[in-house]
Each structure stands twice: as structure tokens, then as C-alpha cells.
Specification:
Blueprint: H1 6-12, E1 22-29, E2 33-34, E3 46-54, E4 57-64, H2 67-71, E5 80-84, E6 87-90, E7 107-115, E8 123-127, H3 148-151, E9 159-169, E10 173-176, E11 184-193, E12 201-206, H4 211-214, E13 222-231, E14 243-246, E15 252-253, H5 267-277, H6 281-286, E16 289-290
Parallel strand pairs: 4-7, 9-16, 12-14
Antiparallel strand pairs: 1-3, 1-5, 2-3, 3-4, 5-8, 6-7, 9-11, 9-13, 10-11, 11-12, 13-14, 13-15
């Protein structure tokens, strides 16, 4: 009876020290960030943020320090949380923003919920989905799935979700985060088909905070990638150089990880499954490739153009 909501918190948080418990559902989840630096003694320099929502709207929630190794893997997209003894702060203006699946949802952009192991120590409870009551008014997780046939018409940097059958996966490669630094991004290229086009999705998959999934992507697996961004290289033939890359909020799922995920209810996901049931596995296996160097976007045909 004493649960508050995000809309009320945004209006009253500056005049309060303690807040009533909060019931929210996780809609987006970022990769885990390590912010430790040489010479600075910090026990657990980790941070992760989530976009959470209730019936009044959506805001950011930040998980700090030792709470990250304790809770990060348990907090999945779709998880319902009961939060007690949390803090409210002015939102950090420079973090990336995921694109919500529900464009009508109100966003409280001025505040963020801060979960710490002290000052005060936050109490976190995960509510099993079967115990979630309709009268709580928590929003469902919504997606922006596209088909391969729709991709060519989408603008640069458009945010979307995709599902496909993996036909190619390249070796893991590294790219420097910045020039002359020793930090690297780890990524790999993959192709996935969904039966709506002769062309595959070309996916640039950076290692997120899901190493168990990233290392197991292989041909013939059903691959779901959320919060991907469209990349267009404006050349003579833009459709040949369009691909999708992961964002800070991307989640990747392969066969064996799909059960219970909210996207299994999506119409485009169901359509893909129906298409796969009509395909010959033996025919698809003949077209699959694994490993090797994959230069993309491809360089021009002659050296003077290059």
C-alpha cells in the first residue's frame, strides 16, 4: 500500500530524504562498465545502468560497485524489481539513451535511481513473473523487430531488433578504442537470414557483458540481437554497405538462451520460427561458413578509387 511511482518521485524527490518502496520492470540493460584506474584504490569499480518503468513512465537506474557482481546477471530485461532504501539523483547527461520500444511512454529524464551497497544500502528483491499482479500496472517489454526486406529503407543510426538464422560467423577481432591506447574492443562479424530477402543481415557484434553467448555464436543457431544501430556508408551503392552494429544497450541471444525471453511473444519472431519450420536444414547447412578474415565494408575494385 505504500509503494510510490516514478512520476511522484520526480516531482517530490528534492524535498525528501527517504522514499517509499518502488516497483519497476527492467526495459533495457547496458553492458557492465569498469571505471577503475591505476593508482586509485577501489574495491569494485563497476557500474551498470538500466532503463526501468512503471505505470507512470520510464527512467534510468544505476547499479554501483559490489552490487554489480552480485546482481547484474540476475537483472534481465523484463525482470520486475522491488526497490527499498534507494537514492534519487540528478541524471547524468552524457550517457547513451536506448530507443524505447513504446514511443508513447513518458520519460523522466531529469532523475536517476541510484543503487548502492552503502549510504544507504539498497535492498533489492526480484519478483517472480508469476507473482506479478495486473493491478500494479507495470508495462510490458516492447521491441522494434525489423525484417531484412525492411532494412534497406531505414535511415542511418536507426535503432532496431533483429532475428535470423546464422549462416556465417567470423573470428573474433580487436580494434583499438582510441589511437595510441592499450584498450581494445573485441568484435566479430556475422551474417543472419530471415527469409524475407536474398541478402543477409550483416552484423558487427561487439563483445557485450555476455561472454558465454558471444563465444558460442555459430552457424545454424537462431540469433536475436536487440538495440542494434543501422550503419550506412554513403557510397555509389548504399544498399551493399548497410549493416547493423551493437549499441551500449544491445543484448544478444542464441539457441539455448531464448526460453522465457519477452521477445518470444513478438509477431515477427513467431513469423521467423514458422519460416524456419518450412526450411530444409541440410540445404541451409551447405550455405554456412565459419571463421576467416572478413573485410567489411569492402574496399573499391581498383586502387585509384581506394
Amino acid at each position: 500500500s505504500k509503494v510510490t511511482n516514478l512520476g511522484h518521485l520526480e516531482m517530490t524527490w528534492r524535498s525528501r530524504v527517504r522514499f517509499h518502496p518502488l516497483l519497476v520492470r527492467i526495459l533495457h540493460k547496458s553492458r557492465l562498465r569498469y571505471y577503475g584506474k591505476p593508482g586509485k584504490a577501489m574495491d569494485m569499480p563497476y557500474q551498470a545502468y538500466f532503463e526501468v518503468a512503471d505505470g507512470s513512465g520510464m527512467t534510468s537506474m544505476v547499479l554501483w560497485s559490489s552490487l554489480c557482481p552480485e546482481w547484474y546477471n540476475s537483472m534481465k530485461v523484463g525482470t520486475v524489481l522491488l526497490l527499498e532504501q534507494y537514492a534519487i539523483k540528478d541524471s547524468y547527461p552524457f550517457k547513451t539513451q536506448p530507443t524505447p520500444g513504446d514511443s508513447q511512454m513518458k520519460r523522466f529524464a531529469t532523475i536517476e535511481i541510484s543503487l548502492n551497497d552503502r549510504n544507504p544500502p539498497t535492498k533489492i528483491s526480484i519478483i517472480p513473473e508469476e507473482m506479478v499482479k495486473p493491478e500494479w500496472g507495470l508495462p510490458e517489454v516492447k521491441y522494434r523487430f525489423i525484417t531484412r526486406s525492411q532494412l534497406d529503407d531505414l535511415p542511418h543510426n536507426y535503432s532496431c531488433d533483429v532475428i535470423g538464422l546464422v549462416t556465417f560467423v567470423g573470428r573474433a577481432e580487436r580494434a583499438r578504442k582510441r589511437d595510441h591506447c592499450e584498450d581494445f574492443w573485441l568484435y566479430r562479424w556475422a551474417h543472419a537470414i530471415d527469409g524475407t530477402s536474398d541478402h543477409p543481415f550483416i552484423l558487427e557484434l561487439f563483445a557485450t557483458s555476455q561472454p558465454d553467448v558471444f563465444e558460442r555464436i555459430h552457424p545454424m543457431t537462431y540469433l536475436v540481437c536487440t538495440q542494434m544501430r543501422v550503419v550506412r556508408h554513403l557510397s555509389e551503392n548504399p544498399s551493399s554497405t548497410i549493416y547493423l552494429t551493437t549499441s551500449n544497450e544491445s543484448q544478444i541471444f542464441i539457441t539455448g538462451w531464448h526460453k522465457g525471453q519477452p521477445y518470444t511473444k513478438d509477431t515477427k519472431v513467431k513469423n521467423f520460427i514458422q519460416w524456419m519450420k518450412s526450411q530444409s536444414e541440410a540445404d541451409q547447412i551447405k550455405r554456412t561458413v565459419i571463421g576467416g578474415y572478413y573485410p567489411f565494408p569492402r574496399p573499391p575494385d581498383n586502387f585509384s578509387d581506394y
